[in-house]
Amino acid sequence: MSDRLQELSVFVRAAESGSFSRAGRELGLSQPSVSRIIGELEARLGVKLLLRTTRRITMTDAGELFLDRAREILAEIEDAENAARGVDSLRGTLRLALPVIYGMREIIPRLPKFLAAHPMLRVEMAVTDARQDLIAEGADVAIRLGELTDSAFGARKLDTLERMLVASPAYLKARGTPKTPADLASHDCIFGPGNYGRESWSFTDEGTQISVDVRGQIHTDSGPGAFASVLAGLGIAMASTVMCGAEVEAGLLVPILRRYKLQPVEVHAIFPGGPRPSAKVRALVDYLACEIKRRN
Prior knowledge:
It is built from ten helices and 13 strands. It has helices at about 5-15, 20-25, 30-45, 60-85, 100-105, 110-115, 170-175, 225-230, 240-250, 280-295; strands spanning about 50, 55-60, 90-100, 120-125, 140-145, 155-160, 165, 190, 200-205, 210-215, 235-240, 255, 265-270. The two termini are about 45 Å apart.
């Protein structure tokens, strides 16, 4: 790696992660080496790019501008190398951050075909319902369900998930089946990642908005935790048709209140570095968008 290319790579990861030691671990360098490289870069440019504190590093205004251009340059270099090798020769590591159930049911089963087309590419996955710091964790692309909160990322919509309420046959036998949203007030509702911490659920009935206060003993930020809870008969849960369709078809879960519509959930692929991702990210996102569109 040339000195200047190394400078750019080290600076980008140090700036993104906020840590010289983390950048060093990811790039196979010692923390003092990262500090030295950043110092030499700043000396050559004659400006301060990063401000160091005992706990974290932050960027100066000049650092923010330099980061945008450095990302663009590294992406251009990667594109040029891939163009020289050929379209089927993407290589390196692609780091994914996936929500648990959607990742396991919709993303991971589609990876074999993608990786067969790109045998030099390695995938590292963080599979969790906790919304990680995409930049700090070094993920190249994350799959997000629900509203996007950070406009600094590039994003592409992949899917729209219709939602419904479900319960186990055992729960409905013991507690009865709600006939209207108002009936939910006397039932145990399960609060999963999509409605964690909320005390009311909203529905639409022929254009009319209905909101009902709900309660329940189960509150979890884990999709599998919420799913296991509804299967165990602990209450009524919201779930997308994609994520619980097999259980509904098998009779393990029963849809309820189908007349009343819940707000659908959008699924996006998001990636750092603005609207133009790297070639390997573009390849994966294009592939997933095509595969999911075919399913729909």
